[in-house]
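quick q for whoever's on today - can somebody do inverse folding on this one?? i tried earlier but teh output was garbage lol. tokens:
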């Protein structure tokens, strides 16, 4: 009686989960101007995100389309995720060495 030994090397197939998920849908972000109190929707290209060393120095900025004021607002973790996911240009103020 001979035992048939099956080799343990089975072909591993790596499932590519992200295949076909590269299409980018335009995202609009709702924002308000503290100066003129205008509310508007901004596209990702109108926003800029700056990530600092701490959450205190992490903020997003945009120019108010109504009055032209440069608005800067603190960005929490959630907002950072939202903005980067939406394709907002990100500027890293702090470089981790
Ligand atoms: Zn304004």
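ok took a stab at it. sequence:
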């Amino acid at each position: 009686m001979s035992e048939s030994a099956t080799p343990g090397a089975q072909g591993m197939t790596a499932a590519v989960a992200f295949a076909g998920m590269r299409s980018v849908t335009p995202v609009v972000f709702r924002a308000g101007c503290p100066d003129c109190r205008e509310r508007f929707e901004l596209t990702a290209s109108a926003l800029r995100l700056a990530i600092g060393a701490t959450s205190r120095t992490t903020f997003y900025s945009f120019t108010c389309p109504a009055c032209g004021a440069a608005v800067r607002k603190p960005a929490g973790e959630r907002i950072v995720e939202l903005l980067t996911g939406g394709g907002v240009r990100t500027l890293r103020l702090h470089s981790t060495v």
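fwiw The helical segments are 77-85. also The chain is about 10% helix and 30% strand. so keep that in mind when u check it
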